[in-house]
Amino acid sequence: MTDLPTEITSVPARMGTEYRVVDGALVGRLVPHPGLCDRGLPPIAALVFLSDAVAGITIDRDPDMWAFTSQLSVRRPLVAPGGVVEARNTALRSGARSLTCEVPFTVDGDEWGTSIAGFARVPRREGDPSKVMVDLADVPRDFGLPPLAEPLRRAAGFESVHPASGVVRVELSTAIANPAGAMQGAIVAGLAEAAAEDLADHHRALGTDRHAVSDIEVFYLAQNRVSPIVTRARFVGPPDQGTIRVDLVDDDGRGRVTTAVVLRVGPAPT
């Protein structure tokens, strides 16, 4: 099952991404719409979505196997891309139980950032929901939704509870869920991104109260289903080095750790 919603109200699918098929391969594009770029560049969650979509749709070709994202990293400079970001998938490893893909991000043909995504192959079992296969030819139509005109935080309903500890809460809704009813993977990344920004902003980690995330590595441990989902965050090493660890915990922080995230922040571009 692809972790990609298609409803017009979907928040992750409206982060400025669009798609086309070129010579039989899926090519994704991220258009930096001003309303979404509240910190001077697109949220890193939008690049997580772009990478997951381009790689996940490309490799998820077996109707008898689920392909779940297990780990995903994005690296980018804290410099506005200055144009449309393009993404293509390259398979680094394809095994019976797992796959690893690289998704370079280019702007005008030059590499601007990169992503590596890992997927777990899991056989469909009796009683599992039906798997909807995505035809590459339909992707440009089905996933090219109108972009958000507001920051991701506001659109997704993130609530900053305690910035000094990086505590951010969100209620699960259909607008931020995947087809299985769990929180969509890019929204998971976006919630961690918000927690890291809050923590760094509050403590003026790099001498400013306006930070952005340059690096993110997400380890998807379990699905986020028990609402609300809450973050907890801490600096790793000196705050002025900008490394932050964030956990997502379900059931209003009383439940299990569903996601472990490592991020790096720097001053947001002006």
Structural summary, described in words:
There is one protein chain. The protein has 270 residues and is of the alpha+beta class. The chain has helices at residues 44-59, 139-142, 152-156, 185-203; strands at 17-22, 25-30, 65-75, 85-88, 90-94, 98-107, 110-123, 159-162, 167-170, 211-220, 229-235, 243-249, 257-267. Strands 1, 2, 3, 4, 5, 6, 7, 8, 9, 10, 11, 12 and 13 form a 13-stranded antiparallel beta sheet that branches. A hairpin with a 7-residue loop joins β11 (229-235) and β12. The mean pLDDT is 92.
Q: Any key phrases for this structure?
A:
270 residues, 16% helix, alpha+beta, globular
Shape: globular
> What is the helix tally?
4
Query: For the terminal residues, how far apart are their CA atoms?
Result: 40 Å
Question: Main sheet?
Answer: 13 strands, antiparallel
Q: Could you state the order of secondary-structure elements as H and E?
A: EEHEEEEEHHEEHEEEE
Beta-strand content: 35-45%
Mean pLDDT across all amino acids: 92
Radius of gyration: 17 Å
Helix-residue proportion: 10-25%
Short précis:
The chain has 270 residues and is an alpha+beta fold. It contains four helices and 13 strands.
Indicate the topology:
Blueprint: E1 17-22, E2 25-30, H1 44-59, E3 65-75, E4 85-88, E5 90-94, E6 98-107, E7 110-123, H2 139-142, H3 152-156, E8 159-162, E9 167-170, H4 185-203, E10 211-220, E11 229-235, E12 243-249, E13 257-267
Antiparallel strand pairs: 1-2, 2-4, 3-7, 3-10, 4-6, 5-6, 6-7, 8-9, 9-11, 10-13, 11-12, 12-13
Helix pairs in contact: 1-4
